[in-house]
Design goal:
Elements lengths: L6 E6 L2 H12 L2 E6 L2 E5 L6 E6 L18 E5 L3 H10 L4 E7 L4 E7 L5 E7 L7 H9 L1
Parallel strand pairs: 1-4, 5-8
Antiparallel strand pairs: 2-3, 3-4, 6-7, 7-8
């Protein structure tokens, strides 16, 4: 098997609101769209996103009334601090401020109008012998 693209499909109440959020704040482009549907892409290696309107018949009946919840779309990026500053200045809805975890993950989160949580992550190089690095390496 050769995976050529990764796509995350999200069911939301307002497709247009999520499209605007991903275009404005995260640089996604609309690849195709129709009533209650949008396919978003970026020119880099980020996952593509499909947005489906709640209730659409393309979804299995048991999923039609569900909405994206309980997941985090994590995008590993470079220049995280500058990106956080840019988004804050643009008025993006940052819902978790920039922080650094002991295991070397630097991150912040923003949330789209439909409640989709997007986490931007940058990994900090940990030195061998660092206790957080040793614990994560041992777990691998």
């Amino acid at each position: 098997m050769n995976v050529t693209t990764s796509t995350l499909s999200l069911t939301v109440a307002d497709v247009d609101a999520s499209v605007e959020f991903f275009r404005t704040h995260l640089g996604y482009q609309v690849a195709m769209a129709a009533e209650g549907f949008a396919s978003l892409t970026r020119p880099d290696a980020a996952a593509d996103i499909v947005l489906l309107s709640r209730g659409t018949e393309v979804l299995p009946p048991e999923q039609r009334d569900q909405q994206a919840a309980g997941l985090i779309l994590a995008l590993t990026v470079t220049g995280l601090q500058e990106e956080e500053r840019r988004l804050r200045e643009a008025g993006a809805p940052i819902t978790m401020p920039l922080r650094e975890e002991p295991w070397g993950e630097r991150l912040f989160q923003l949330t789209d109008p439909n409640g989709v949580v997007v986490q931007l992550v940058e990994w900090v190089a940990a030195a061998p012998g660092d206790s957080a690095w040793s614990a994560s390496a041992a777990a691998s």
